[in-house]
Each structure stands twice: as C-alpha cells, then as structure tokens.
Amino acid sequence: MAGVTARRSRASAAALTAGGPAAAGLDGTTGVGRLLVQGPDRPGIVSAVSAVLTRHGANIVSLRQHSTDTVGGQFAQRTVFALPDLAAARPALAADLDREIAGGLGLRWSLHDTAHRKRVAIFASRTDHCLLDLLWRWRRRELPIDVTTVVANHPDLAAEVEPFGIPFVHVPVTGDKSEAEAEHLRLLAGRVDLVVLARYMQIVSAGFLQRLGAPVINIHHSFLPAFIGAGPYAKAKDRGVKLVGATAHYVTEDLDEGPIIEQDVVRVSHTDTVQDLVQKGADVERAVLSRAVRWHCEDRIVVDGNQTVVFGR
Amino acid sequence: MAGVTARRSRASAAALTAGGPAAAGLDGTTGVGRLLVQGPDRPGIVSAVSAVLTRHGANIVSLRQHSTDTVGGQFAQRTVFALPDLAAARPALAADLDREIAGGLGLRWSLHDTAHRKRVAIFASRTDHCLLDLLWRWRRRELPIDVTTVVANHPDLAAEVEPFGIPFVHVPVTGDKSEAEAEHLRLLAGRVDLVVLARYMQIVSAGFLQRLGAPVINIHHSFLPAFIGAGPYAKAKDRGVKLVGATAHYVTEDLDEGPIIEQDVVRVSHTDTVQDLVQKGADVERAVLSRAVRWHCEDRIVVDGNQTVVFGR
Amino acid sequence: MAGVTARRSRASAAALTAGGPAAAGLDGTTGVGRLLVQGPDRPGIVSAVSAVLTRHGANIVSLRQHSTDTVGGQFAQRTVFALPDLAAARPALAADLDREIAGGLGLRWSLHDTAHRKRVAIFASRTDHCLLDLLWRWRRRELPIDVTTVVANHPDLAAEVEPFGIPFVHVPVTGDKSEAEAEHLRLLAGRVDLVVLARYMQIVSAGFLQRLGAPVINIHHSFLPAFIGAGPYAKAKDRGVKLVGATAHYVTEDLDEGPIIEQDVVRVSHTDTVQDLVQKGADVERAVLSRAVRWHCEDRIVVDGNQTVVFGR
Amino acid sequence: MAGVTARRSRASAAALTAGGPAAAGLDGTTGVGRLLVQGPDRPGIVSAVSAVLTRHGANIVSLRQHSTDTVGGQFAQRTVFALPDLAAARPALAADLDREIAGGLGLRWSLHDTAHRKRVAIFASRTDHCLLDLLWRWRRRELPIDVTTVVANHPDLAAEVEPFGIPFVHVPVTGDKSEAEAEHLRLLAGRVDLVVLARYMQIVSAGFLQRLGAPVINIHHSFLPAFIGAGPYAKAKDRGVKLVGATAHYVTEDLDEGPIIEQDVVRVSHTDTVQDLVQKGADVERAVLSRAVRWHCEDRIVVDGNQTVVFGR
C-alpha cells in the first residue's frame, strides 16, 4: 500500500506533463482541462466553444477539430486549456457548456481534469509482454494513469507483477464464465475508468460490458480484419503473409469487431516459424496497446459509430 | 499551349479537393480559405480568430493550433474555412484581421484562397526521379499547384518533360553562375510562388534568394544533419550505416542548413553498393520532396526560426 | 521500333549489373548464372551443388539457402555464380545437374543466364501509377527485364505509354472475356516469360493461365487476406483501419489467393477519405509491385505450395 | 544463486531454438554449430567449406555468403550445421579447417557451438529501458545468452534488477575512471564473451578494451553520424529534425565511431519537446540494442574494417 501511495504522488507530476508542451510549466494552482465535443456539424461550433472557454478565463493551449464533411457531417473537437483553479471553476463552466453547447448546438461534451488520472485495471493471462510494458511505462510516468489492479485468470504472472506494487488478483475462469465475471464486477464496477485486456485471451460478455460501466480496450494479435479469431499467427504463417500486425480496439459485443484505435505491423519472411511470428508480433502488440491506452487516457479519442477519431499531437 | 490550358482547367477541380474532406462537396460559389496566424502566444487568440471568421460568415472546417509553451511561447494556427464568395468578402475580412489579429494581438497572418493555386517552377539537372514524380502527381491532380516551368542546367531531360506540356528551359550554368541566375530571375521573378530544386545540384546564391521573392524548397539526398554536402551516398557506404535517408528543407543562405520540412529513410545493408544506395535513396527522395511540396502548397507549414511547424491532417 | 532497339542495347548493361555486387565488374566474356534448387531436404545438398559448380569452373558469388526444418523439411537454394563463356558451358553443366542434383538427390533445378533478360508483358486498365512505375524503372535500368508489350482493356493510357517506345495494344474486354483472352494468347503465348497485371482489374481464367505458359503477377490493393475482392479501400474506410496496404502475388485460379510475394502498408487516419486512401495506397501499390517484379526477374523467388521463399540480398 | 541456476537450465532449451528453424527439432545428442569464415575472396571457397563440413558428417541447415566484389573482394560466410556429438567431433573438424581453410585458402574462421551460450555482462547507469528490455528478453528466452552480471555506476536500478536473479554490482565512477575500470576487469576479464553498454553513459578507455578481451556493444541515442557525442536529443530538437534514431555499434577507441550493427528511427514532430524525444527515442534504443545483441550472439556479424556484415535469416 505504501508503495502504491508513493507511486501515486510521483505520478501526479506525470499527469500534468503527459499532455506534452500543452501542460508544461504549470504551477500547482493552475489546472489543465480537456474538453471533448462531438455531434452533428453546423457553422460556428469552434467559435462558440472557444468563446465559452475564454469567457471563463481559460487559455486554449491546444485545439484540434475534425468534420467528416463540409456540410452535414459529424463534428468532433478536442480542446486543451489552462485555467487557474479548474476544480472551483468547473460547475459554472459545465453549466454554460450544457446550455450553449449541448442545448444550443445539440452537441455532446465531456470535460476531463488532468489532475484526476484515469483508474485502470489490467486483465492478463499467461503472457507477460503487454502487461509488463504497461506497468513499466506507468512506473516511468509515461502513462497518465493509476493502475489499480491486475486481474488474471492464471496465477503465472504474480511474481512478475509483485515488484510494481500493484495488487494481483487471480480469478480463475472455468467453463461457465459468469462466476468469474461476477467477481470482476465486484472488484471493479464503479472503481475503474478503463479496463485493458492485455492478451487476456477470454471473451467478455455483453452483460459484463454493460454492468462494468467503463470502456474496455483489447489487443488483438493480428492486423484486423485479417485473421480474426483464434490462432492468428498460425493462420498468418499458413497464408504466407510478409507482414504481421496487431490491433488495439474498443471491445463491443462482437468479437474483434469494435472500433479500431491503433494498428501496426512488422516485416516477416519465409524463414520465420510460427514461434518467430509470435515473438516478433509480441513487440508490435505491446507497442500498439500502450499507444492506445495512452491516447485513451489523454482523452484523444472520440468514437464515431464503429470508427475512432484519434486526435494526435 | 493548348495542352497547358487543358491541364489548367482540369487542375481547377483538383485544387478544391486537395484539402481532403475540408474542401469536399463545395459548389462553385463557395470559396475555401486557409488562414495562417503566428506570433507570441497570449490567452484568447483562438477565440479571437474564430470570432472574426464567424462574424464574416465563415464556417471553420478544420483548425489546428500549436503553442511552444503554456506561457510565453510561440503560437501558430492553421484554420480552413468555407465562405460563400470568398473573393468578394476578402477585403473586409483582411481589414478586420489587420485590426484585431495583427494590431490587437501582435500576430502575423496570411490568407490563402484555394481557388488560386500556387505557381511552381521546378529546377532539375540530369536525374529524373524527383522531377517526374512531381510532374506525375501534378498530372494526377494530387498536387494543388500550377507547374509553370521546368528549368534545367543540362538539356538531358527535355524529352521526358515534353509529354507533360510544360515549358522546358535550358539555362546552362558555367563557372560564374551570376549569368544563369540573372536569366532565372528574368524568367521567374514575380511569376512564381515557389521554386522547387528537384536534385538541381547547384548552390543558389543569397542574392538570388532575395531577388526571387518566393520560397525555395530543396531535396538533400541524406538524412540531415548526417552527410551534409556532396556525395552523401558514398559517405554513407563508407560509414557503414544501416539506413539512408532524404531531407526536404527550405533553402537559406547556409547550404543544407535551412528549416527541415520532411525526412524519411530506407533500410540498406552490407550487400548494397553505392549505386544501390543511390537507387534506393531515389525512392525516398522523390517521396519526401513530393510530400514537402504538397504541404507547402496546402499552406500547412509555418516557419519558426530554423524549425518548421507542419500542420498535419 | 528504333526506340525499342535502342532501349534493348542500353538494357543489356543493366542486366549484368542488376544483381548488385554479385554481377559487377564483369567483362563481356564472363557469364553470370543463377541456379535455383528446391525439393525434399537431406544432408549434403549444399556441398553437392557447390561441387558441381566448382567442377565446371564457376565461382560462387552469392549463395542463400533455406530449409523449412532441420530434418525432413523442404530445401531451397539460390546460387549466383560467375563462369567464363556460360553459354558454351551450359549443356555439360545441365547434364551434371540432371544426373547429380535431380537424379541423385531428387531435387528440381532451374538455371538462368543473366544475359537473357526476362520478356515481360504488362497488363493495365485506366490507372497509370503501377504501369508508369514499372516503365520508368525499366527505362532507368533498375529492372533487368525487356518490356515487350503493354496490353490494356481501355485506350486511356496510350499517350502515357508512347514516350517509352513500347507497343501499346488495346484489347477491349466485353461480357464474354474469352475473345479477349484468345487475343492475349495470340499476342503473348511463347513470347513472354512473365505477365504483370498492373491494376488490370480483370480476373483471368484458369484456361488462360494454363495456355499462357508463363507466371502472372498481380497487385491487389489491400493487405491480403484483409479486404479480399473488389473495393478494398472503401471497405477499409468503412472498417476504420489505421493502415492500408497492398499485396503482390502470383495469380492462381483462386482470386486473391495465390502465393504472396510482397506486402507493405502506409498509415492513414480518420481524416482520410476513401479518395485519400486510394491516393496513399497507390504509392504503396507501385512500390510493392515493382519490388515483386524485380525479385521474380532476379530469380529470387521459389514457390513452395501456397507460400514463397524470397531470397534477399 | 538457485535462481540463476534455474534460469540457466531453462535457457538451455532456448539456446537450441534461438536460431529459428535451423536449430529446431533437435534431440539432445545432436549439436548445432555455426561457422564464420572471412578473408580475401577467391574461387572455390563455398565448395571447400561445405566439403569439409560434409566430410565430417555435418548437415548444412543454413548458409549465407557475401563477397564485396566479383573479383578481388572480401569474402564472408556464415554456415549453420547439425552434427551428432559436435563436441567430440570438434577437434578433428578444427584441424581440417586450419589446414584447408586457413592454410589452404588464407581465410580466418571461428566455430561456435550453440550449446555454449555467450556470457554477457550488461553495464547500465540510471535509465532502465535498455537494461530491462535485455533482461526481459533473456527471461522470455528470446536471447541465446547467459547474463552473468549487471554493472552500474549508480545504485538506482538495483531494485529493478533484483527480480531477475542477476548479480547487480555497483561500481562508482569518479573523476579518474581507472579505478573503476580496474574493478570491472577484476570482475569480468576472462569471464564474459560480450559486454553490453545499455545507456552506460561513460566512455571506456582503449586500455580497458584491450585488457577485457571481449567485444563491447554500445547503444548511441542518435542516428549516427548525426548528433555524435553528448545530448543528441537536445541537438535534434534544436535542428528541427523529423525523425530521431538510435545506433548500436561495436565500441572502438574512437567515441561513436565503431562499426555500426543496427540503426532505426521513429517519427517526431514540432509538437514533441526534448523530453518527448527522449521518451520516443527510448523505444527505438531498446529495440535496436536488443537486435544487435541477438545478432552478435547468434554469430551473425562479421566485422570488415569499420563496417559490419550482418547475415540475416
């Protein structure tokens, strides 16, 4: 517990700087907020949003906006702003956003205070690469998150998680997974902002997703939609592809069909065995998953139907 | 000449669509403008700029903004907007930008009407890859430019340029290059918006740059600052590097020292001879130069000292 | 025709050097051969093959060998060798290979004299990027081939092919494609060593493949097996992928299912329209197809079932 | 100690499989050897080497050969072979190699038994990414090595190394580094086959290199020869480059001038601060260093002057 507390205070500074230059150089009394806005496009949205923020004393330090079409498309915007005493200013700001942005323009908005890091639970099974890469980046303060728990359906990785000072909870999954999911919900519902499936290798049910009340990110070990389902590296070897890849996506009821957040590939050749593909792919998987988690926790992602808008730097 | 005219009318449609979704779906009476703003950062700039645009009836379809620091940094912003009858609205809009953005906030601004494609002259020597890639992308309508002239210090490429219907002007460069540069200025000064050195292999003088009155983009056949100067591929082979690259940059008085726009690399190995490096590098050079020209002509680049801000999509 | 002749003599030198260092520095009287050997693995193959070559006076300048397993796998080997007067030595060498390698070891072999460039016909439709990239690399002497004919089912690209001095043959394809294929066979059967489908966009029949008697390479505009069939870029946009790719493969009776030679990808984002994907993908398609054609014509590829062994440099 | 022993036995299997298919499927009584041969090229080397191996009962499972020129170049060859009871056969094989390959052909050779993993000491300072990536890959059995010791000039990383069961030795380096180097030599001379500088950040002396009697691999945090020396990321930011990289090289007396083994890069932009470059670069550094260590320990590298021949798969 002491370890966790220590991490927490160390990580506070990390959360402030994780947004890059936008959040640098802030003293303790200045807050940094991120405002996401999305909905049907119409003229004047950028102006309206920036007017609200400016009126409340905010200085916009980063703004990116996307419209799917010039007329009649979908609009999405991410705005990072600095505001002294953000926590105190928040209620009045929220009231104006409700009235002018939601009410007046018919848009959805969400406001994120970077002082509140997202609480993340990581699910793993027997392979360590994705899990350890997330924990290592968290410990290096590269990820603006609090890792609250590691949940695993096998006990194998307990010793590897131990040095990080994060609770490791072994929840076996048997034929009927409803019991395990009930245990997961007891542990996590209302206590996490994100669940990451770090090669968890188990399908989660629609009911679990609904009751969890938090988004779930999965890493699939292929370049989707190629090699959907189980055993993608063996399928890749069998097909003789020259690249293998990995895909991080939000989990929906349809296996491997959720909105894609990030993908990448690595070159392979006829000399690579299936085991070589597994090994080369592992490097891509951990990189892709870590990027997806970072972007989600930096509030860079807007889901639009089955696609994602990812606001880069 | 008929060929050039035909290209010109074909390319009109290209200019409107080259900005991607931002410019799509516009009928003939709606203009699309791009506004670049840069200068010392202070609170309220985004709001002020969007207020001016909105007041003039513009709909912001893309906005990207960058600050080098939260307080006291440099600010840069690119805004794409749709505005019916932009040409007619421009004088009043410019007056407000002068008063409120330049006068009130101390910022520089430039306004670009996408209906006016940039006039580009390409300088070449004896190798065709960069020149042809630009001409080919221009003919495919991938680049929102008018290629007005190809200037070469050798006659070798005349036959390859001929099918594109662009005037090919052979201006030999002898020991004293002042005569050639005078001829270049007679041809181009006041008649081009950009000069592209497509492996021209000649140093241009500071005087030429001043009198030209338009930016010049060069492609250097190495990953700068590695292998500055002549013969970079031979130097790369000699050093035994495992990647070779190319760098597109604005030309300044200092050889190979101007602000870098884009760079890329390709993998090489001990099996590659210097000639192999030249060949592999050629593919990188043409790709890097074409991207740099595109970004410049889409008004995506703000020069900040010896660095560039490149606003992506 | 004069143009074709001129190209041909120019390309002679290219064929000698296209193999890289292996083929460099040879005078006119020394031949360079490439020997491919494949079949069931057993001890002693490398030694036996090199003994035969050495006995005939050949100097091995490059050798790569691949076994799918230590015991009981499939063996493949590519050997490049220099041999004075290869043409004269060939019959005796072939007899020994037949006896010792085929007869004694149960392996298949093929011997390629680099003095005989492969005759290549390129099939195109309306898009120029893959076709022009091949023609341009051929003209630059990057590809060790003779392009004998361009065949197209539309006349659109005739003017773009004309400057290269290659016959352009327009063979329309109507509902029943058997007539067109009969015309293709009249033009090509026995006269080409390779047919390249450079975004030809037509399915060729099993009967055509059999009667042609030469391999056919196709470029598919997706990262197979993702987005098999028609309209892959629209499918990619719809699925929201973050990379698009291209695949060069040998054509078999099953559409998009033949042995993959090469694949590559390029990063895309939510800002890219389908048209943007088409444009970005075009750069990958031309690069991937040109690499596949080069490797085939440098005798680097051994087909093993539905997979390829590609011997690199 | 028990932990180290346990690792060692686990790693035995790893050593056998780390060579990929070449070494797969071997029972306990069959050895796998790797033979490196280099020197002035002449006809018949491949044949002579394979004849010696075949005569001793070896089955060649992988062979790659490189000549810098067709005539008068430098020759290098890597041959992987299977041989029952390699240890027993070695003396006679070595005698023949001495007589026929060294004596008869004037070549240098070295023979490596994959049953003997290379003993590796890792030097670190305060940053953990390169060190942990090597330890993690060693624990996953991706690297065919025995990590014998971690040496650090600061104590910071002791706790992170502890879970791996490797001795962590803190050897402070003060103004005069001769004392530290003497301690290093007491620890390592004659006891290691390779020293890896994993962001050790200290220059090692020529005397140390001589007395160590083992190669040393360093990771430099830039794409050499760009940004040689200290502070490369700050220099990269200052120059405004669009890619940052890392270089693994053998250490020689000249700082950052030794033969390059591997390099790679990652894309950066104007939005990245120096700290962002450090973070993005760290991922490239650890990947590049791990590849270099793997290739060295799989006997894939031949040093030819200031360049390396790296035999891929």
From TrEMBL, chains A, B, C, D:
<keyword id="KW-0378">Hydrolase</keyword>
<dbReference type="Pfam" id="PF01842">
    <property type="entry name" value="ACT"/>
</dbReference>
<feature type="active site">
    <location>
        <position position="256"/>
    </location>
</feature>
<dbReference type="InterPro" id="IPR041729">
    <property type="entry name" value="Formyl-FH4-Hydrolase_C"/>
</dbReference>
<dbReference type="InterPro" id="IPR044074">
    <property type="entry name" value="PurU_ACT"/>
</dbReference>
<keyword id="KW-0658">Purine biosynthesis</keyword>
<protein>
    <recommendedName>
        <fullName>Formyltetrahydrofolate deformylase</fullName>
        <ecNumber>3.5.1.10</ecNumber>
    </recommendedName>
</protein>
<dbReference type="InterPro" id="IPR045865">
    <property type="entry name" value="ACT-like_dom_sf"/>
</dbReference>
<dbReference type="InterPro" id="IPR002376">
    <property type="entry name" value="Formyl_transf_N"/>
</dbReference>
<comment type="similarity">
    <text>Belongs to the PurU family.</text>
</comment>
<comment type="pathway">
    <text>Purine metabolism; IMP biosynthesis via de novo pathway; formate from 10-formyl-5,6,7,8-tetrahydrofolate: step 1/1.</text>
</comment>
<comment type="function">
    <text>Catalyzes the hydrolysis of 10-formyltetrahydrofolate (formyl-FH4) to formate and tetrahydrofolate (FH4).</text>
</comment>
<dbReference type="InterPro" id="IPR036477">
    <property type="entry name" value="Formyl_transf_N_sf"/>
</dbReference>
<keyword id="KW-0554">One-carbon metabolism</keyword>
<dbReference type="InterPro" id="IPR004810">
    <property type="entry name" value="PurU"/>
</dbReference>
<dbReference type="InterPro" id="IPR002912">
    <property type="entry name" value="ACT_dom"/>
</dbReference>
<dbReference type="Pfam" id="PF00551">
    <property type="entry name" value="Formyl_trans_N"/>
</dbReference>
<feature type="domain" description="ACT">
    <location>
        <begin position="34"/>
        <end position="109"/>
    </location>
</feature>
